[in-house]
Amino acid sequence: MNILVINCGSSSLKYQLIDMKDEKVLAKGLAERIGIEGGRVKYEAEGHDEVVIEETLADHKAALKIVLDSLKHEEYGAVKSLDEIDAVGHRVVHGGEDFAESVVIDEKVMKVVNDNVEIAPLHNPPNIIGIEACREIMGDVPMVAVFDTAFHQTIPAVNYIYALPYEYYEKYKVRRFGFHGTSHQYITERAAKMLGKDLDDVNLITCHLGNGSSISAVIGGKCYDTSMGFTPLEGLAMGTRTGDMDPAIVPFIMEKEKLTPDEMSSVMNKKSGVLGISGVSSDFRDLEEAAEEGNDRAQLALDIFENRVRKYIGAYLTEMDHCDGIIFTAGVGENSITTRERVAAGLKSLGIKLDAEKNDMRGKEAIVSAQDSSIPLLVIPTNEELMIAMETARLV
């Protein structure tokens, strides 16, 4: 079975074509600058060099058409005909309380996704556009929605209800939803296999650390708590997002700086985090380089990020009777040797120890804890596209 995985952003479209027989990536790429000047589609098929198609992309449908034409191209295509694509899996960021798992897309599903635009105005609209473009071009090919929020729908009320008047939850669904769920689910399943445990028996702390970061507590293979909240703004200090802070700061700064709600939202989502602290960059590689050169604010930004990671790990350990593993994934978690070192160094009082030699690697599955560590430390590169494909294959 060949599954096409589609991940639409506001001006981009990432894709992979995966043969589920052996989980081989037949082709992958990115369409970017959709709807603006300078559009292009990057395409790379197994056994062929990357092809870059420079063309104005009026909308997602135009981008998707180029992607599909590339997939069946005589010279560098991955399939001879679109009939060889058995299903399409779409990443959809927000499913609200309506979906606790992936679903085959029908009109009812589309209505719910549209209804959730109000609480995910930056994310759901491009996901909807991608689905509609695929339906228009590909016709009756089965399609599946895989929700970022679905994995977190097992969180109990004690962890998802905010200490606000309860009527706001009843009227507006103001609650913790959590995000990066597809990534947390993938590394949970991989960790269970690496540790030789049944998924239903495994307790983990999963750390998705990148420009956007979140940590989840997993009990019995299901999410019990997570750091992101009603939006992806809550939790860790991130690349450009504030993470946790005193909510009274918001009206205080708005009054002092004469900011509108939209302007304040932009400050918190796009100008804060390690970028705001350091004044250097939201890229952790740039921060590490600046810190090595003696930039104190860059070092402070890294220290704050790592301290928040340790705090969440410590908090989540109190929610489970035992922990079978702490997992590092995503851009920083998979690739930053020093971040893993510094996070682990602050957990020594809990008997958690890193093995420096094992940890000296990037982007590979490995157990990097010392032999006598009280809890295993694992690095697992995330693969959200494969998780989406697996969910799609399961359903169709």
UniProtKB/TrEMBL annotation:
<dbReference type="GO" id="GO:0005737">
    <property type="term" value="C:cytoplasm"/>
</dbReference>
<comment type="function">
    <text>Catalyzes the formation of acetyl phosphate from acetate and ATP. Can also catalyze the reverse reaction.</text>
</comment>
<dbReference type="GO" id="GO:0006085">
    <property type="term" value="P:acetyl-CoA biosynthetic process"/>
</dbReference>
<dbReference type="GO" id="GO:0005524">
    <property type="term" value="F:ATP binding"/>
</dbReference>
<feature type="site" description="Transition state stabilizer">
    <location>
        <position position="180"/>
    </location>
</feature>
<keyword id="KW-0479">Metal-binding</keyword>
<feature type="binding site">
    <location>
        <begin position="283"/>
        <end position="285"/>
    </location>
    <ligand>
        <name>ATP</name>
    </ligand>
</feature>
<keyword id="KW-0963">Cytoplasm</keyword>
<protein>
    <recommendedName>
        <fullName>Acetate kinase</fullName>
        <ecNumber>2.7.2.1</ecNumber>
    </recommendedName>
</protein>
<feature type="site" description="Transition state stabilizer">
    <location>
        <position position="241"/>
    </location>
</feature>
<keyword id="KW-0418">Kinase</keyword>
<keyword id="KW-0067">ATP-binding</keyword>
<comment type="subunit">
    <text>Homodimer.</text>
</comment>
<feature type="binding site">
    <location>
        <position position="91"/>
    </location>
    <ligand>
        <name>substrate</name>
    </ligand>
</feature>
<dbReference type="InterPro" id="IPR043129">
    <property type="entry name" value="ATPase_NBD"/>
</dbReference>
<dbReference type="GO" id="GO:0008776">
    <property type="term" value="F:acetate kinase activity"/>
</dbReference>
<dbReference type="GO" id="GO:0006083">
    <property type="term" value="P:acetate metabolic process"/>
</dbReference>
<keyword id="KW-0547">Nucleotide-binding</keyword>
<feature type="active site" description="Proton donor/acceptor">
    <location>
        <position position="148"/>
    </location>
</feature>
<feature type="binding site">
    <location>
        <position position="384"/>
    </location>
    <ligand>
        <name>Mg(2+)</name>
    </ligand>
</feature>
<feature type="binding site">
    <location>
        <position position="7"/>
    </location>
    <ligand>
        <name>Mg(2+)</name>
    </ligand>
</feature>
<dbReference type="GO" id="GO:0000287">
    <property type="term" value="F:magnesium ion binding"/>
</dbReference>
<keyword id="KW-0808">Transferase</keyword>
<feature type="binding site">
    <location>
        <position position="14"/>
    </location>
    <ligand>
        <name>ATP</name>
    </ligand>
</feature>
<dbReference type="InterPro" id="IPR023865">
    <property type="entry name" value="Aliphatic_acid_kinase_CS"/>
</dbReference>
<feature type="binding site">
    <location>
        <begin position="208"/>
        <end position="212"/>
    </location>
    <ligand>
        <name>ATP</name>
    </ligand>
</feature>
<comment type="similarity">
    <text>Belongs to the acetokinase family.</text>
</comment>
<dbReference type="InterPro" id="IPR004372">
    <property type="entry name" value="Ac/propionate_kinase"/>
</dbReference>
<feature type="binding site">
    <location>
        <begin position="331"/>
        <end position="335"/>
    </location>
    <ligand>
        <name>ATP</name>
    </ligand>
</feature>
<dbReference type="InterPro" id="IPR000890">
    <property type="entry name" value="Aliphatic_acid_kin_short-chain"/>
</dbReference>
<keyword id="KW-0460">Magnesium</keyword>
<dbReference type="Pfam" id="PF00871">
    <property type="entry name" value="Acetate_kinase"/>
</dbReference>
<comment type="pathway">
    <text>Metabolic intermediate biosynthesis; acetyl-CoA biosynthesis; acetyl-CoA from acetate: step 1/2.</text>
</comment>
